[in-house]
Amino acid sequence: MEWLFGLGVIVLIAAAWRTRTKNKSSFTGEQTGYSSKPLPPVRHELLDKHAIKPPLNTQGPQSLTNRPPRSDTYSMEYGDVDGVVTRREFKLKRAEQYSGNLYAICHCFYRGSERTFRVDRILSLSHTDLGTIADPVSHFSAFIDPATLPDPDHEAIMARVRPGLRALTWIARSDHELSEDEVQIILRFVDQRSKLAGPSRERTWNRDLARIEIENERSTFDSSAGALARISRTSREAALVREFATEISRLGGDSSAKRAQKLLKIIS
Q1: 80 within 8 A of 121, measured Cβ to Cβ
Q2: Dihedrals φ, ψ of 75, to 5°?
Q3: Residues 97 and 201 in one domain
Q4: Domain closes at, from 88, 116, 146
Q5: Given 90, 119, 146, which residue is the final one in a domain?
Q6: Which residues contact 112 (CB under 8 A, 6 or more apart)?
Q7: At 154, phi and psi to the nearest 5?
Q8: Distances 209 to 93, 144, 248 between C-alpha atoms, Å
Q9: Over 80: is that where the pLDDT of 18 sits?
Q10: Highest-confidence range of 1-10, 70-79, 118-127, 172-181, by mean pLDDT?
């Protein structure tokens, strides 16, 4: 009987050893006689849950080229007097003929205000309804109102205001660009200067044509100084130029103020 008890103990020890070996090989994935299958990959559920995911709509805001065009508007490439080429969208208000050149007076969406463009400087032109326009000059000529053509009264007034206009434009262009506020100040100067001759000699002038001249004026210090030298220091015209130059200086900042101080010495 003792030998049977000893045999049973040996069988139990062997079974326990076999079970231990099997569990170890399943945990490590080592190849044994009992299992050769690797462990399944571990999923990091916490990381997956908080991972940064791309937005559902990956398309950015519409660019200018993808934006639907405005109705009844023009698009052009324009080269200004300094040779700078820009692309503009605008709505035409009217066309004017002045000093042998054709101008389009428009609301410019690029600047958000009224602007005047010399038509022969338009490099390419298209319209939302008409498509490409091959000849801008012929196209805009059809919009000229005969009633707005220059008259002797306008030319006479502009000849009188031109010295002050040149000086004020040079002061305003201290940053090379005329703002809408600066244009309006100079137009008010033209109006005030035109009335200095008195009611009996007062003449009419065309505001649109005056604006064209202001926006295309590229006076220098020498040309402005030469124009002011013809004005008497004690005249009402000199006082008017000083008044409007001061207004432009306040609007344009230090650079405009320095220009005004330099130029107004001539009539002070």
Answers
A1: yes
A2: -130, 135
A3: no
A4: 146
A5: 146
A6: none
A7: -60, -45
A8: 14, 12, 21
A9: no
A10: 118-127
70 vs 89: CA distance, rounded Å: 9
Residue 168, pLDDT score: 95
Total tally of structural domains belonging to the chain:
2
**Residue 46 — pLDDT band, cuts 50, 70, 90?**
very low
Same domain? 140 vs 163: no
DSSP string spanning 108-175?
A: ETTTTEEEEEEGGGEEEEEETTTEE-S-HHHHHHTTB-GGGS--HHHHHHHHHHHHHHHHHHHHHGGG
Report if residue 195 sits inside a domain: yes
Please check whether residues 198 and 184 belong to one and the same domain: yes
Tell me the mean pLDDT in the region 148-170. Answer: 86
User: pTM value?
Assistant: 0.57
**What does the longest C-alpha to C-alpha distance in the chain come to?**
152
- Per-residue pLDDT band for 205 (boundaries 50, 70, 90) equals confident
Is 28 inside a domain boundary?
A: no
Structure tokens belonging to residue 223: 């040309």
Band (11; pLDDT cuts 50, 70, 90)? low
Domain region containing 97? 74-146
**Residues facing residue 76 across a β-bridge:** 88, 125
